[in-house]
Design a protein that fits this description.
Layout: E1 7-8, H1 11-17, E2 26-27, H2 39-46, E3 50-51, H3 55-62, H4 64-71, E4 80-82, H5 85-97, E5 103-107, E6 116-119, H6 122-130, E7 138-142, E8 148-155, E9 158-165, E10 179-182, H7 187-200, E11 204-211, E12 217-223, H8 235-255
Parallel strand pairs: 1-2, 2-3
Antiparallel strand pairs: 4-7, 5-6, 5-7, 8-9, 8-11, 9-10, 11-12
Length: about 260
């Protein structure tokens, strides 16, 4: 192990010295990995290289399926990750046992509401998947009608939340026509966010919460970064807070 850790702060520097990194070295940037390059994160962990943000949250931010596997206890009951036709058939039975009709399918690596589809029932999903129309893997969830959608931004002790509302589309994303409305989080909702961040190793996050008609709150998605439309904080202040938080974490690693 190096006496003085090497600190890598850019992707260019990382890829130029990737094979030279040793246990104790620190990478303090989100890695721009191509599809299929995620194994690099595992290699870094095995070699004892430390990452800010963590390898877990970097991977979870790229994959809705990994998010669902990692944080399923915070999501809508009976959220399932489907990897193949056999898993889908099991979920057909599960949803039948619980009388679940409409379902939402989320493609693994699409954002801004572009990879979310509503089906009348899971048999429609099965038909398309069996005919190779739907690519694996994907996430399946029971459809919750008349739910509210909250976007939460958390960076250290900074918290901002706003509702995204679209009466003409079940996709409330602002990209899909939703309108923002500032809201105050309850203590329970804030704790859910912090629990998700701790479990996923997120030093900061954009979280989407679903609020049901029964006033139950579930995690919908979590990401390291997200769109800033609808937020009160401006991009410059946002980037500054991110830099400050990463600086704190770096200092903690160096001094530990």
């Amino acid at each position: 192990m190096s006496t003085t850790p090497r600190i890598i702060q850019t992707n260019d520097d990382f890829f130029s010295c990737y094979h030279e990194l040793q246990a104790g070295d620190i990478v303090t940037c989100r890695l721009r990995l191509k599809f299929g390059e995620e194994h690099i994160l595992l290699d870094l962990l095995e070699r004892g290289v430390q990452l800010i943000p963590s390898a877990t949250c970097q991977l979870a931010s790229r994959s809705k399926c990994f998010q669902a596997r990692l944080l399923t206890l915070l999501m809508i009951p009976h959220t399932e990750v489907i990897y193949d036709i056999h898993g889908l058939l099991k979920t057909v039975t599960l949803y039948g046992q619980h009388s679940i009709d409409k379902v939402v399918l989320k493609h693994d690596r699409k954002n801004a509401g572009l990879g979310i589809h509503l089906f009348r029932d899971i048999e429609d999903v099965y038909t398309q998947a069996a005919n190779n129309i739907l690519p694996y893997p994907f996430v399946l969830q029971p459809f919750i009608g008349n739910s509210r959608d909250l976007r939460v931004i958390i960076i250290d002790d900074f918290v901002e939340a706003y509702e995204r509302r679209n009466p003409h589309n079940f996709r409330n994303n602002l990209h899909c026509g939703g309108k923002p409305l500032p809201v105050e989080l309850s203590n329970t909702q804030l704790q859910l966010c912090k629990t998700a961040m701790k479990r996923g190793g997120y030093p900061y996050a954009h979280l989407d919460l679903m609020i049901t008609e029964k006033d139950e709150t579930y995690l919908a998605e979590i990401n390291l970064r997200g769109g800033m439309r609808g937020a009160v904080i401006d991009s410059k202040a946002y980037r500054l807070k991110i830099t400050e938080q990463e600086g704190k974490l770096l200092a903690q690693l160096i001094n530990s």
